[in-house]
Design goal:
The chain is 31% helix and 23% strand. The chain has 339 residues and is α/β, with parallel strands linked by helices.
Length: 339
């Protein structure tokens, strides 16, 4: 007969704090236009992006992730030694080993935490948040630090008209901890490997090993990705709202992956969001920061000034893979804490 094993008492989980790091260098469209033979007007019409940030030599994926993680912990009121697990989502960390997770954990002071990397490209943050929610609800961990950190400028061809103007660098983080009532709704997620060629690198790093002048930068079939996003992502986002047991009118905010302003606004229309729902449009000044974009946009809504939304927020990540995930979360209160 199977042996009865004891388990820790499960409970709910919620986001306790949010942090972000934005590189110092602001790159306006004018700095991109000449390289792709375009104009500021063309870029804004296609993407809604006015500027983005590019990281400097010292603003590594690790350094930015640590800065965002420290801020999230401070705002959550959680000490680094109280963190049990650190999850790092990134598609631009270019070391096969060592993984980024243990380095970020060390950097924030969570020296005994389990730490690992999670790769799901632009859906990476939502995937990692789903894992963190499960860990806390199962009482496998009490506090989980989830970090999305990207240097997209390292993997983009600055002369490629399909990608050069879209992407930026940044990091965002949240702390997930226990709650009496669930603050993170059911995750709706999946993938479609038949469309893996729509976003990605044309070659592996092996192809560059014997070609000193070759660097396999990321490519994207923009029109096909746009059509996929507005047809598929709207449906899964609506399903996440339904599985959370609420209506779209109950939402305080919509924080999708900041891929493109046209996609964001179209998703809001497809979901039928009322005017009372604040829609995150951080992409205008941050660009597409992949796995960092949702926590970065959440930070902007809570701390950029003005009245911060309070209550339920629908978040949805989607991108290369193709991978996607969505859930409803309760936003943490905006608090004053040391940066």
């Amino acid at each position: 007969m199977p042996t009865n094993l004891s388990v820790r008492r499960p409970g709910g989980a919620r986001i306790l704090g949010v942090g972000a790091y934005r590189p110092a260098r602001v790159v306006p469209n004018s700095a991109i236009c000449e390289l792709i033979q375009s104009t500021d007007e063309w870029i804004q019409q296609r993407s809604g992006i006015v500027s983005r940030r590019f990281a400097g030599p010292d603003e590594t994926v690790i350094a930015m992730g640590v800065a965002a993680g420290r801020q999230a912990l401070a705002r959550a009121g959680v000490a680094a030694d109280e963190v049990d697990v650190v999850l790092v989502a990134s598609m631009s960390y270019l070391y096969q080993s060592p993984p980024a997770g243990p380095q970020v954990a060390h950097g924030v002071g969570a020296t005994r935490a389990a730490a690992l990397d999670l790769g799901a490209a632009c859906a990476g943050f939502c995937h990692a948040l789903a894992v963190a929610d499960s860990l806390v609800r199962a009482a496998t961990a009490r506090h989980v630090l989830v970090v999305g950190a990207e240097r997209m400028s390292d993997i983009i061809d600055p002369t490629d008209r399909s990608t050069a103007f879209l992407f930026g660098d940044a990091a965002g983080a949240v702390v997930v901890g226990p709650a009496e009532q669930p603050g993170i709704g059911p995750t709706v997620w999946g993938s479609d490997g038949t469309k893996s060629g729509l976003i990605g690198h044309p070659d592996s790093w092996l192809a560059a090993r014997d070609k000193p002048d070759y660097w396999p930068t990321m490519r994207m079939a923009g029109r096909e990705v746009f059509r996929w996003a507005i047809t598929e992502v709207a449906g899964l986002a609506g399903q996440a709202v339904a599985e959370a047991g609420i209506q779209v009118a109950d939402l305080a905010a919509f924080i999708p992956h900041q891929a493109n302003l046209r996609i964001i606004d179209r998703l809001a229309r497809e979901l039928g969001l009322p005017e009372s729902v604040v829609v995150a449009r951080d992409v205008a000044t941050a660009g597409n920061t992949s796995a960092a974009s949702i926590p970065l946009a959440m930070d902007t809504l809570l701390y950029a000034g003005g009245e911060s939304p309070a209550g339920a927020a629908l978040i949805a990540g989607f991108g290369s893979g193709l991978s996607y995930s969505a859930m409803v979360v309760n936003l943490p209160p905006a608090v004053s804490a040391p940066d």
